[in-house]
Amino acid sequence: MTTTPAATPAAAPVELDLSPAPGAVPLPRMILSQAGYEFRAVVRNGEQLLLTLIIPVVLLTLFSATSLLDLGSGRRVDFLAPGILALAVMSTAFTGQAIGTGFERRYGVLKRLGATPLPRGGLIAAKTLSVVAVEILQAVVVCAVALALGWHPHGDPVSVVVLLLLGTAAFSGFGLLMAGTLRAEATLAAANLVYILLLAVGGVVFPLDKFPGAVRDVLELLPISALADGLRQVLQHGVAFPGKPLLVLAVWAAAGLALAARFFRWE
Q1: Taken in order 211, 215, 218, 224, is the CA torsion positive or negative?
Q2: Percent of the chain residues topping a pLDDT of 90
Q3: Average model confidence (pLDDT) across the chain
Q4: What is the full DSSP assignment across the chain?
Q5: Which of 5, 120, 182, 257 has a 20 to 30 Å separation from 14 between CA atoms?
Q6: pLDDT at residue 65 tops 90
């Protein structure tokens, strides 16, 4: 006698939830996306690339290979390399950022970005990450050229990183302050003028001890002078956490960021 197997119940249909779930992209992802855009814009901009990378490398190579300047005793590249690193930070964090942000403000780019889900704090964070990324690229290229010219750095790398971060904060604060308070054309002229002046009197390629004592005491308080001197103390003389340069940079960073936060206008 055969029996018919019992019928198995049919599986219940799977219900898919196809209802829309709108929502903003996570903030870290938005910041990284905007930072990537900012970085690519700098790298693709020929004028920015000239300012941030080519000029520092040309100055390093020219003055290291020739005796056009009296740089005192010791190898020329040992004096020049830290100053050129300081110049690279200033060119990106101050000059390039001031000019770029100033024209973004003029053409309404900042206003449009302010209407997107990316908050203004996120935009500043993205710009900061972009500046740091460009500075890393600059440091790699400048150090590679300096090493090829015979540079032998030594010292505490943590001290170097702290100096570079404080220098970036100081220059970024005043770059954003300039971009957020002046017209774009005025920012362009002023940022380039400051770049040239600080290149000449900031101890980047001209030793400050060539200036009279009273003038030298004032010039040592400039952020570019403090950054260049601090990097030389670490990379040339092996000093760990040079006190005066760090203090000067910390004061400039606090003042610049506070003033930028207070007076920056987005439109």
Answers
A1: negative
A2: 51
A3: 86
A4: ---PPPPPPPPPPPPP-------PPPHHHHHHHHHHHHHHHHHH-HHHHIIIIIHHHHHHHHHHHS-SS---SS-HHHHHHHHHHHHHHHIIIIIIHHHHHHHHHHTTHHHHHHTSSS-HHHHHHHHHHHHHHHHHHHHHHHHHHHHHTT----S-HHHHHHHHHHHHHHHHHHHHHHHHHS-HHHHHHHHHHHHHHHHHHSSSSS-GGGS-HHHHHHHTTSHHHHHHHHHHHHHTT--SS-HHHHHHHHHHHHHHHHHHHHH----
A5: 5
A6: no
* Number of H-type helices and E-type strands within the chain: 12, 0
Distance between CA 122 and CA 127 in Å, rounded?
9
Amino acid identity of 99?
Answer: I
Residue 156, classed as helix, strand or coil, is coil
Q: Which has the minimum average pLDDT: 14-23, 120-129, 186-195, 214-223?
A: 14-23
Residue 230, amino acid: G
The residue behind tokens 């010039």 is 219
Strands of 115-217 (E only): list them. none
Q: Whose structure tokens read 């990450």?
A: 129
Q: What are 111-149's pLDDT values in tens digits?
A: 887 777 777 778 788 888 899 999 999 999 999 999 999
